[in-house]
Amino acid sequence: MSESEAVTRAASAASGLLPSLDPLLRPWLPRQRWFAGKGRPVSGFSLVAATELLPPGGRIGLYHLLVRAHQPPRGDCYQLLIGTREALPPRLAPALIGHVTEGPLAGRTVYDALYDPRPAEVLLEALRSRARIGGLRFERDEDAEPGAAIPPGLVPRLSTAEQSNSSVVYGDAYVLKLFRRIAPGVNPDLELPLALAREGCARVPAPTGWIRADLGGEPLVLGVLQPFLPGVTDGWELALRERAKGQDFTAEARELGRATADVHTTLARALPVVTLGPAQLEPLVAGMRGRLDAAVRAVPALLPYAPGLRAAFDALAGIAPGSRTAQRVHGDLHLGQCLRDPSGRWSLIDFEGEPARPLAERRMPQPVVRDIAGMLRSFDYAARSARPPVPEDTAAAWAGACRDAYCAGYAEVTGADPRADAVLLRAYETDKAVYEVVYEARHRPDWLGVPLSAVARLTSG
Fold it and tell me: Which of 137, 183, 215, 330 is most buried, by CB atoms within 10 Å?
């Protein structure tokens, strides 16, 4: 979306809306967990779209906004659900954005409407009725079972889990994920679960509905409604719990490997598989080398390991063209993206990919080891996150057993053990560990030792 985009306004009061909100959004937006531009000043805002979902003259008003935050050298577009009231009740205090003093909302209090049940109900009702409101399209899967109607009266609650988006749970039936940072194009968190559902893969909750907008001919996916999985346990929390008790996690790791393989084989049936020729391999290796060079400049502790790390990427560059394949994958797989139900069955969620990467890159075919490397690194983190801490050799043994079990489970389904392709797996693990070093150095210095221990292992031969 460029700055020349036409601004669509379904609300008659849209004129002057953003200028009145500007002084409130400037301090509020950077504080949000999902704001991508932390550390860079916001120089201004521009309105991409405004749609009135509840009239502002009532007790509760509701605006759907797409707002571009300008931050040199670039800006991002964000989806905001702005509620308006004369005053906020105490239960909505965490949602406060501020009090408007001028413009069409003068005298009103504005807040993040997802904290409020009534505005959240409006979104589900629009999906139930397949509504079209201004530039917004609330759609359902045409291939869904006829009896799969969304029942009325489901009580909404905002999920408190830390994530790069926002999720509202309706009763124990559905969860609506609203993407906060919006980019034009097909979002893989809708595209891939739809493709998997149409192939009959039960490892991923099938989308029930979604919210879309079309601006200047560019499709925007704004949110996805999926079945809520009650009674499930987050893979990260489960691994930490078992690790803290000193319990073996290899049986769960093996089942996770089988679940990953089920998803990969289904995606390979549903969507194209390509051969990694020079046109694909050269930019892949160049990206890994470039990220390493930037990481060494940012984190001097990496400098002694740089030759060994670079050797992993050089080995990848030396493989025979046409000897490997790439396909659509999860793109950001780790223990926190996996859920185990009470029967012991694992599901995979959150197919958006790494949000910091461009959408076009996230939709590119990748070798399946990209996902596998992410999960292997996640076992490493779980092993070293035990409280109280355990000796390094104990942590390494626990992580190594989980890594081996996961790869063995994957091989049981596909017939191909990821460990057999050591060049490809080492390159992707190295690339992931380099990313982790930079992230921890910037955000969690106390954790820097976790990826640095992986870097030492990966460069030790």
Answer: 330
- Write the single-letter amino acid at 239: A
pLDDT, one tens digit per residue, over 98-129 is 999 999 999 999 999 999 999 999 999 999 99
Beta carbons of 273 and 424 less than 8 angstroms apart: no
Alpha-helix runs per DSSP H in 183-227 = 188-198
pLDDT tens across 254-288, in order?
999 999 999 999 999 999 999 999 999 999 999 99
Q: Is residue 332 within 8 Å of 188, Cβ to Cβ?
A: no
What is residue 5's predicted lDDT score, i.e. its pLDDT?
38
**Other CB atoms closer than 10 Å to residue 217's CB: what's the count?**
6
Residue 13 pLDDT exceeds 70: no
Please tell me the total count of domains within the chain: 3
Residue type, position 123, single letter: L
Cα–Cα distance, 7 to 16 (Å, whole number): 13
Q: Which of 141, 338, 363, 312 is nearest to 236 (CA)?
A: 338
| Domain end position, chosen among 227, 249, 279 | 227
Tokens 């906004």: give the residue: 65
Residue 162 and residue 142 in one domain: yes
Q: Is there a single domain that holds both residue 96 and residue 149?
A: no
Distance of alpha carbon 292 from alpha carbon 431, whole angstroms: 8
Which residues form the domain of 156?
120-227
Is 188 in the same domain as 282?
A: no
Q: Is residue 2 part of a domain?
A: no
